[in-house]
C-alpha cells in the first residue's frame, strides 16, 4: 500500500441513528488513529454495537458520514485491512460442521478472490496466526466442540489472518470466565504493542479493560468522554452509568 | 443390469440420476447449514405450478405439446426463488416466513391450473412421485447443462459461499458481494430442483437435498468432508433406488428416499457406535477445555 502515511484509520462524523422514534445515537464524532488501543465503553443498550455496525456499513445512519483509511465508506474497497470480530454467537451458527482451520481460512477469502486457492504461503499464515492466539493444537477440531473462550480466539485468528491494520472487537468477552478474559486482554495488548495493530474494543465491562487500553470513549447515546486512558476517571463513568455501579467491579466476568 | 444399457430411456434415467445425485446434495450442504432446508419444498412446489401451467397451455397451444414441461417448471422455480429472496429481505427477522408464503401460493395456483387442464392425468402423476421412464433426451440435456453450471459456480465461488453460509454479516464486512451471491445460489437451487423432479418427484425432491446432508452431518469432521459424505450418500441412494424401483416396478422417488433414509439411519448408528458425543450448541462448559 502506498498510503502508509495515513494515520486516521476510522473517522465518524456527526453520526445520528434512530430506530422508530427512539434516538439510539446522537451526533457522534469518533476517530481511531494508528497504533491506538481504543476501548469503547457504555452500558447495555447504549448503542455501541449500532455504532460499530454503522462504522462497517452494515447499518445506514440517519445522518453523518463515515470514512475508513480516509476514504468515504461508500467507495471503500480494502476490506482486508479491517478485521472484525462480531459479538459472540450473534450471527454465527456454532453447530456449523467446520474445523478451526477452515474457519480461520475464511479470513483470507476477500484477499484470495476468484479462481485462486489457498497455497502453501496461505496455509503457513493460517498456522502462524493460530500459533499467535495459542490455538494451533486445535487446528483440526470442530469449531462447535470448543469452549466459548477458545471459539473467540479462533474468531480473532480469522480476523488477523488477512493481516489487517485495524482490529474491531464487539463484546469479545461476553460469556467467558474471568481468568480467560485476563489472558485475552494480554493477547490484545501484545498485538497492539508488538505488531503495532490498531485496536477498537467494544465492551460494557469497564473494570479490567481500562488497565490495557490506551484510549477510552464512553458512549451513552452521545459520546461522554474520549481521551487517553490516563485521563479517564471513574467519576466519568458514574455520571454516565448513574446508580448502576456494580459494573465497576473488577471481579466482573462469567455469564452476563 | 443389461436392461439399463439396452434401453435408451433407462440409460437417460441413470445418467440423470448420477448427475443429480451430485448436484442436489452439494447444494444441500449450503442449504442445510444455513437452516433453509424448507426452501427446497417451496421451490419444488412452484416447479409443479409451472408444470401444471404448461399442461394447461399445451391444450390450446399446440406448439408446446412437443416441449418438455420441465422448462416451464424451471422458469417458475427461478421466478419463485427470486420472490423468496425478496421476501427474506422484507422479513429479515422471520426469514422462514418466505417459505409458507411461496408454498401456499404455488399450491393454490398449481391446483387451479390442474383443474383447468382437466384434472390429474398420468403425466402429472409422474411428476409428483417420480418415474424413471419420464426422462427424455431433452431432459437429460437440461440436467447436464445445469450440472455443468453448478460445478463451475462452485469452483469459482466455493470460498465465498462457505463464508456466507458460516457468517453472513462477517462475509459482508470482508467485502464479499453477499446479495448477488445469494441470488446466484438460489437460482441455481431452483434449477437443480426443477430438473431433479422427474426422477425423484416434486413431493420428494427436497429429500435428495437434505437427507444425504443430514447423514453427512453425523460423521463429517470438516466442511470438506460434508461434501464428500453428502455426495457419496446421494449417489448411493439414487443408484440403488433407481435399480430397485425398476425391478420392483415401483416409484423411483419412493425407493430413492427409502435408500437415503436407510443410509441416514446407518450414519446415526455409526456415530453412536463410534462413541462420538452428540454436540449440543450452547450447552458446552465455558472452561471445559481451557
UniProtKB/TrEMBL annotation, chain A:
Belongs to the ABC transporter superfamily. Transmembrane segments: none annotated. The keyword Translocase does not apply. InterPro entries: AAA+_ATPase (IPR003593), ABC_transporter-like_ATP-bd (IPR003439), ABC_transporter-like_CS (IPR017871), Metal_Ion_Import_ABC (IPR050153), P-loop_NTPase (IPR027417). CDD domains: ABC_Metallic_Cations. PROSITE patterns: ABC_TRANSPORTER_1 (PS00211), ABC_TRANSPORTER_2 (PS50893). Keywords: ATP-binding, Nucleotide-binding, Transport. This is Zinc transport system ATP-binding protein. Residues 10-246 form the ABC transporter domain. The keyword Transcription regulation does not apply. One of its GO terms (molecular function) is ATP binding.
Automatic annotation (TrEMBL), chain B:
InterPro entries: ABC_BtuC-like, ABC_TroCD. GO terms for cellular component: ATP-binding cassette (ABC) transporter complex. It is found in: Cell membrane; Membrane. Pfam families: ABC-3. One of its GO terms (biological process) is transmembrane transport. Keywords: Membrane, Transmembrane, Transmembrane helix, Transport. Its main location: membrane. It is a multi-pass membrane protein. The chain crosses the membrane at residues 12-33, 63-85, 97-120, 140-164, 176-194, 253-270. Belongs to the ABC-3 integral membrane protein family. This is Zinc transport system permease protein. It comes from Salibacterium qingdaonense.
